[in-house]
Write a structure and sequence with these properties.
The protein is α/β, with parallel strands linked by helices and 349 residues long. The chain contains eleven helices and twelve strands.
């Protein structure tokens, strides 16, 4: 697991300068952006577990891939570990939004841990698809990044049936035993365009390739990519707020560049925005990955306002109102009453 500082770095941000450019400076603010329903559910699950059971509560891997979220939860008493064998026997452990394999569930049970599964329901759907196709003896081509926690969890549902395809290029070389019984599944946080390129190249080699019963790439990933495509066409610069290990945040940078942005960068915090990025820039696009709290976006907007980008126009391409119930262990408070935040509870954008 990437090293995460115990708290936000105490960095004195250099003030950005309001340097002249040709034309009026403006910001195009993509929407939807930031927290999705699965991330909201997972973060609230850790908070509720701390309220219900007291600190410490252990979390296997980062609950979501965002440094700021992880450090805030650490300050509240969460302890993040790589594997369940690091958790004291009998303690409470939360499984992250990215999901875990059956082997991890068994290991937690063997240690007598009280496991709370905060896996995003959309990831759970892909797990169930893998189990079903393996039961029907299909070979599963899992499009995703080898080593990503979500891919490890999905592959772990049917390891004898899964082959990971990391890129469109790998689609040209992957081998299967029976081309008539092959299905593709995908990591939920990938670029829609790259995934479909991989699928199309697979289908050229395996014309009988089966599709999953529904699109595996999650609604939030798709919505954020659609929004940044629209923003990028008019942006000299795109700033994506999100952490380096966030697959969907990294993809947003790539999508912005592919769809017309002259430059695009990812930052965790506003203090990482560099003056030279803004030189000669008239229009800045701003968005954030699906595990990023809105406060970090607002800090970036404040920094840009210092540099003269006070005109902010929201570019909205979809409305999101989906919410997921908390894990069953957390839907009631200590007295047995239904908890008011049983459906997450944050406003998403």
């Amino acid at each position: 697991m990437p090293q995460v500082p115990s708290r936000r770095r105490a960095v004195e941000r250099a003030r950005l300068e309001n340097r002249p450019v040709s034309g009026t400076k403006r910001v195009l603010l993509a929407a939807p952006r930031g927290y999705c329903a699965g991330v909201d559910r997972a973060v609230v699950a850790v908070e509720k577990a701390l309220e219900r059971y007291g600190a410490p509560v252990y979390v296997r891997k980062q609950i979501v891939h965002n440094i700021h979220v992880v450090t805030e939860l650490e300050d509240k008493g969460a302890i993040f570990v790589d594997e369940v064998d690091e958790v004291p026997e009998g303690a409470h452990v939360v499984f992250s939004a990215h999901g875990v394999s059956p082997a991890v569930v068994s290991a937690a049970s063997e240690r007598g841990l009280h496991a709370i599964d905060a896996t995003c329901p959309l990831v759970t759907k892909v797990h169930r698809e893998a189990v079903r196709f393996a039961r029907d003896d299909y070979e599963i081509l899992l499009i995703g990044h080898d080593g990503h926690e979500e891919v490890e969890g999905t592959a772990g549902e049917a390891p004898e049936h899964v082959t990971i395809v990391n890129s469109p290029e790998e689609a040209d070389t992957v081998q299967v035993k029976d081309p008539s019984k092959v299905v593709w599944l995908s990591q939920t946080t990938l670029s829609v365009d790259e995934t479909m390129e991989t699928v199309n190249r697979l289908r050229l080699r395996f014309p009988e390739l089966h599709n999953p019963p529904s699109d595996d790439i999650c609604y939030a990933t798709q919505n954020r990519q659609v929004a940044i495509k629209k923003v990028a066409a008019d942006a000299d610069l795109v700033i994506v707020v999100g952490s380096a290990n966030s697959s969907n945040s990294v993809r947003l940078v790539e999508v912005a560049l592919e769809y017309g942005a002259k430059a695009a960068y990812r930052v965790d915090y506003a203090e990482e925005v560099r003056q030279e990025w803004l030189d000669g820039v008239r229009t800045v696009g701003v968005t954030s990955g699906a595990s990023v709290p809105e406060v970090l976006v607002q800090e970036v907007l404040e920094a840009l306002e210092e540099a003269g980008y006070a005109d902010v126009e929201e570019v909205r391409t979809a409305e999101e109102d989906l919410m997921f119930s908390l894990p069953k262990e957390l839907r009631q408070d200590a007295s047995g009453q239904r908890d008011g935040r049983a459906l997450g509870g944050r406003t998403t954008r």
